[in-house]
Amino acid sequence: MASAELSAVPSPGPSSAVRVRFCPSPTGNPHVGMIRTALFNWAFARHHQGTLVFRIEDTDAARDSEESYGQLLDAMRWLGLDWDEGPEVGGPYAPYRQSQRMDVYADVARRLKEGGYAYDCYCTTEELDARRAEARAAGRPSGYDGRCRTLTAEQVAGYEAEGRSSIVRFRMPDEPITFTDLVRGELTFTPDNVPDYGIVRANGAPLYTLVNPVDDALMGITHVLRGEDLLSSTPRQIALYKALIELGDAQAVPEFGHLPYVMGEGNKKLSKRDPESSLNLYRERGFLPEGLLNYLSLLGWSFSADRDIFTVDEMVAAFDIADVNPNPARFDLKKCEAINGDHIRLLDVKDFTERCAPWLKAPFAPWAPEDFDEAKWQAIAPHAQTRLKVLSEITNNVDFLFLPEPAFDEASWTKAMKEGSDALLRTAREKLSEADWSDAEALKNAVLAAGEEHGLKLGKAQAPVRVAVTGRTIGLPLFESLEILGKEKTLARVDAALARL
């Protein structure tokens, strides 16, 4: 490379080796749109036996935080999206936090100016605003008009004598820029729509427009897969890449693929402010990493026309960026839950019971620790696994086993305990007291027989029994639940419900 400051940075690797990057900013909590981008980059790298570079874009000191940085790393680990270079892993292009690379950016900016690719711009904010308003009024593009492109030494001296500060602008070529987007096909941007742009602030701080493509170039990134919102910056970055190639800091312009927007309620782009965008929400509710990743992969991509449940390994084997749909993808929470539920049922029972563990103790569990019965939990777990959409639902589904008495849901009580329910419960108690409690089918037949005596089918007959025993109209398979709870406690709860009636 041309400068002493960059001489220690390795040259980018061969262009035939796939190198992609995930480069979030540590601002706020991780959100699902960001994770979808990470997933597609990760799957692309793994499919091509390439390299995933995890890079932290933390040059905005006012917004970045160490807490958010820690959450990013924790999120990637929880999801199982491992990276080949980056924080905690290292690599030949370290450091991978932009806040630790400021000398690199300063050197590149200096050499871009020396080579004529960039220049100092002394225009004030007020001057820029006035000229933009004038351009809009005349129906012209309102981007920067190139006023400082060809300043003379005397003009520069005059501005500096006035005490004006300057930013550094990159000089865009006066010709169209065309590239083939891996998702959207061939795109062309004309010069009047891509004016010269700032790369360094007046205080010397580098802007995203400089640091992002510079790091991509120096780290040998071959494919840039990112959100559609960054599409408009691509022609500017392509021009900068070409300048970096001429300076010896890059080998080739990477290929670009811009992923579709993720839309929320009301067909609005899902933003960090939307509750359903927060990754922490899904972790707290007990989504499985593999279930969440399965759903997020379907936001713009599909495994096959007739299958939407698959493993991460199957996704990697099938993933092709050319198959990504450019149209916006709508985030459907109910479908996300349904897919997660399918992945819960794919677990072996031992794995399922272990993953439920956090929701079976404080602060989630309403029962005293000493009332938890491991044998009952192991017995009910296979039945619970067939019903859950998210792991956090386990608490309310099994609390009847460990609480001294059911936690009654009043709406359930009102719905189930209608006129005549007391008579039905008395008959059901009589039948159950005589039944074989080692066989759930026998308990079912007992309640069925009680219902027949009162002209009720099983569905109507079992509702009062379920609410009396569990406190709710909806729950795990009833007769298996009664068998596990046991005869003594079940009959006692029926008696308590009769007394309440």
**Biggest β-sheet: count, sense, barrel?**
3 strands, antiparallel
Helical fraction = 40-55%
Beta fraction: 5-15%
Number of helices: 20
Largest beta sheet: what is the strand line-up? 3-4-7
Tell me the distance between the termini.
86 Å
The total of beta strands comes to 11
Shape: elongated
Explain the overall architecture.
The model is unreliable at 1-15 (pLDDT under 50). The protein has helices at residues 32-47, 66-79, 102-114, 125-137, 153-161, 208-218, 234-247, 279-285, 289-297, 312-318, 333-346, 349-356, 374-385, 394-402, 410-416, 421-433, 440-453, 458-470, 478-485, 487-500; strands spanning 19-22, 51-54, 118-121, 167-170, 177-181, 185-189, 197-200, 223-227, 255-259, 262-263, 329-330. It is mainly alpha-helical and 501 residues long. α1 (32-47) links the parallel β1 and β2.
Summarize the structure in short.
The chain is mainly alpha-helical and 501 residues long. It has helices at 32-47, 66-79, 102-114, 125-137, 153-161, 208-218, 234-247, 279-285, 289-297, 312-318, 333-346, 349-356, 374-385, 394-402, 410-416, 421-433, 440-453, 458-470, 478-485, 487-500, and strands at residues 19-22, 51-54, 118-121, 167-170, 177-181, 185-189, 197-200, 223-227, 255-259, 262-263, 329-330.
Write the layout of secondary structure elements.
Blueprint: E1 19-22, H1 32-47, E2 51-54, H2 66-79, H3 102-114, E3 118-121, H4 125-137, H5 153-161, E4 167-170, E5 177-181, E6 185-189, E7 197-200, H6 208-218, E8 223-227, H7 234-247, E9 255-259, E10 262-263, H8 279-285, H9 289-297, H10 312-318, E11 329-330, H11 333-346, H12 349-356, H13 374-385, H14 394-402, H15 410-416, H16 421-433, H17 440-453, H18 458-470, H19 478-485, H20 487-500
